[in-house]
Amino acid sequence: MDRLLLLMTTTTYRAGAFLEAARRLGVPVVVGSDQPQVLAAANPGGNLTANFVNPDEGTRTIVEFSGQYPIRAVLAADDQGVILAASASAALGLPHNSVEAVVAARNKYRTRKMLAQAGIPSPVFQRIPIDADPEEAVREVSFPCVLKPLSLAGSRGVIRADNPREFAAAFRRVEAILRQPEVVAQAGEFSRHILVEGFISGREVALEGLLSHGRLKVLALFDKPDPLDGPFFEETIYVTPSRLPAAMQERTITRTAEALKALGLRHGPVHVELRVNDQGPWVIEIAPRSIGGLCSKTLRFVDGISLEQLILRHSLGYGVESLEREGQAAGVMMIPIPEAGILREIQGQAQAEGVPGIQEIRLTIPVGQALVPPPEGTRYLGFIFARGETPEQVEGSLRGAQRCLTFAITPLDDVAASECAGVPAYVRRREMEKAGSIRSRPRLPAGGSRRSE
Questions:
Q1: Residue 162 forms part of a structural domain
Q2: Do residues 316 and 416 share a domain?
Q3: pLDDT confidence bin for 336, thresholds 50/70/90
Q4: What is the 8-class DSSP label of residue 212?
Q5: In total, how many domains does the chain have?
Q6: Which H or E run contains 79?
């Protein structure tokens, strides 16, 4: 039986898409979670609780489980499970990336070192302990620079600094994120340092790929048309196919393959972020998993096969080489959070859904919940999906739909602490301290927020 173990945390966006893909393929799935599942006892062969933070312990659990319920493949839906997936696959004799390669990809400092050692163009970089004095550490820093955690995803904690004052403020802000109990529990030793690297200017792109025996199959190359120059790096729009010149696209693919080889990654999905400028492509980050959030809905392959179906087929050893992406342009907007507060009302969804080219709008934060923007936040207001004949049409549809949406938000300083569940105390304190300047800031007439007093 082709039973597949799918590792995912309880907070993942990806569960539904992978489980639906498995259903369509007729493949039994074991849901491997970091927390016990309520109905696990009713289906002991379909649920497994494993330690994601301690891969050795988690691997022992998986191997013992596989003795009773044989597993054909182990796949991680998100970053948190990729090291355990590699370790368990090695122990079970299944196709896998080496644990060393996955650990290197998860540790952004280690990634930088290995790329530099392989001669791949890299910015200057250094690793600084979170208990260092930023006023002392800044003496070794060149500007502009970017500070970031070693292992967090979704641009969380990524901040640009252009001078010593901004560096000190950014350092303390990243440090506060890394000291949060949930981050320490998730990131472990990766939460003890901050990576500081030179800022790379240019257009940003993302490559979605699949590795087989070290050979890269490119599934999509996304443009990110909004400038990502800081001070924070919240992503908004992804559009494919890329509008880069064909020669630069080839250079980007070649540079990606070189970087993957330098890290030792050889098997499974990869999501790679790059910057492109006059000097060519620069690798920013490498993730040994597929694209995050709900963004995979932008990709459809022949016969309507989803990205998750493609990944499951590959992990189980089924053929995927002939599966190409559909020809239509596609894109997604991750709806940004304009300010911290409590979401009170959403207006304009029907109008946004009526914009030509819009396929779906999925709002993911319910009314009444707290909003935390970057760099501390980990969620988006939702996702807008569009398709069209050209990338330009898709981008226009996404922006048109966003302009229709308005979000009524009550600032954190106007609500009781009981409504701020999920908002770190230091974030609430900072928002209350700057309340005066926020209130004087002009509001966006559309595609943004309006104050709910």
A1: yes
A2: no
A3: very high
A4: E
A5: 4
A6: none
Spell out the long-range contacts of 47-54 with Cβ–Cβ below 8 A and sequence spacing 24 or more: 48/5, 50/7, 50/84, 51/84, 52/7, 52/9, 52/80, 52/81, 52/83, 52/84, 53/185, 53/186, 53/188
pLDDT tens profile 97-139: 999 999 999 999 999 999 999 999 999 999 999 999 999 999 9
Residues 144-166 as b or e (16 or more Cβ within 10 Å = b): bbbbbbbbbbbbbbbbbbeeeeb
Contacts of 452 (CB under 8 A, 6+ apart): 341, 342, 344, 345, 408, 409, 410
Amino acid identity for residue 313 in this structure: R
CA atoms lying within 13 Å on the CB side of residue 172: 11
Tell whether 113 is covered by a domain: no
Structure tokens at 339: 């300010």
Last residue of a domain, one of 198, 229, 254: 198
Q: Is the pLDDT of residue 429 over 90?
A: no
Check which CATH number belongs to the domain holding 287 and give it. 3.30.470.20
Q: Is residue 275 part of a domain?
A: yes
Domain span at 143: 124-198
Give the type of residue at 316.
L
Domain C-terminal end among 147, 172, 198: 198
The reported pTM is 0.91
Residue with the two structure tokens 């490119």? 218
Residue 320 predicted with pLDDT over 90: no
Could you give phi then psi for residue 334, rounded to 5 degrees? -85, 110
Q: Are 10 and 186 in contact (CB under 8 A)?
A: no
Residues 402-424: pLDDT tens digits? 999 999 999 887 777 777 776 87
119, part of any domain? no
The answer on 338 and 313 residing in a single domain is no
All residues at 6 or more sequence positions from 43 whose CB lies less than 8 Å from its CB, including other chains: none
Q: Are residues 280 and 365 in the same domain?
A: no
